[in-house]
Amino acid sequence: MNILVLGGRGFIGRHVVRALELRGHAVRIGTRGNLNDSGLFRRVRMQKMTVAADWHGMLHGIDVVVNTVGILRERPGETYVAVHHRAPAALAQACAAQCKRLIHISALGLTGEARSRFLRSKLAGELAIAASGADYLIVRPSLVDGDGGFGAAWVRWVARWPVHFTPAHALGKIAALDARDLGEAVAILCEGTDMTSSREIELGGMVHRNMRDYLAAMRPAHLRRAIAITVPFWLARVASHVCDVLHFSPFSFGHLELMRRDNLPRHNHLPDLLGRPPRAVGVMPCALNSSTTRFSPSCS
User: Fold this and answer.
1) Which of 33, 40, 92, 123 is the most exposed place for a label (fewest CB within 10 A)?
2) Cα 84 to Cα 45, 47, 54, 68, 202, distances in angstroms
3) CA dihedral 108, 16, 214, 285 (to 10 degrees)
4) Looking at residue 198, what is its pLDDT?
């Protein structure tokens, strides 16, 4: 098949492209970056492609579109509403008109009660796609780990610190998965698998951890146990807004909201799609000190 991967040079997009190529598909990459003469790349400016007509030419000769594009923070001319909502809505309308299949990579934990504009815009994009009439799938992974990921690299770096700081209410659990498994699962979905009849595919690893335990699991085994310090929620919120303003680190107000509740698949389709257990992320779970004191050691 001919498959267009929007954001194919990004973290998740690269793994999707690699998995598709290994399965013998012809891949085109939508990117806002520099193009070359190979014909493999197509110029995509999501923030400017907010009506269906903007996408019609882009879809010529394509069987399936995979949208992996997302922004952590807004920049001049690039807003959450445009990139996460209006552009995917327009793309879905174009796919419906041309009978193209659309696979949209979203995230777990999106609710209408979210205060973060980042989270609300992604939910609005999902709802618009569902209402478009397109042949669509919405894929919601939990936290994704792997080489080349901005957030994943930060987590691995922070995990090496002698002290781990986590917000007071960051008790929600995640089911971190390997980016290679996510790429393979998306490639299988592109082929029109009948392994699921759902329009909403939720994916995750097999181990459920809160952020404190996840940092401990990502800590190299040769290092001594880190000291876990609980940060008051108000201070964590201030820090998240500062990070958003300064565009510093992957820590954001949206992620702080997500950490307050579980972000686990209601039904984890990943093992069924892969036909095997997902790759393990981090070390195996170990007993953690459950003390409610402000200073408590985590496991290595």
Assistant:
1) 33
2) 12, 9, 16, 10, 19
3) 110
4) 85
125-139 burial by CB neighbour count: b if 16+ within 10 A, else e?
bbebbeebebbbbbb
Whether residue 242 is contained in a domain is answered as no
Residue 126 falls inside a structural domain:
yes
Burial (CB count within 10 angstroms: exposed 0-12, middle 13-18, buried 19+), residue 233? middle
User: Cα separations (Å) of 96 from 55, 89, 102, 131, 136?
Assistant: 11, 11, 9, 10, 9
Residues of the chain predicted below pLDDT 50: 287-300
The CATH number of residue 84's host domain is: 3.40.50.720
Domain count within the chain: 1
pLDDT of 294? 33
| Surface-to-core class of residue 98, CB atoms within 10 Å of its CB (0-12 exposed, 13-18 middle, 19+ buried) | middle
What domain range includes position 40?
2-146+175-207+263-274
195 domain residue, yes or no:
yes
Q: What is the pLDDT of residue 67?
A: 98
Say how many C-beta atoms besides its own lie within 10 A of residue 221's C-beta.
6
Q: Is the dihedral of CA 254, 255, 261, 265 positive or negative?
A: positive
User: Which residues neighbour 264 within 8 Å (Cβ) at sequence distance 6 or greater?
Assistant: 108, 142, 173, 174, 175, 204, 208
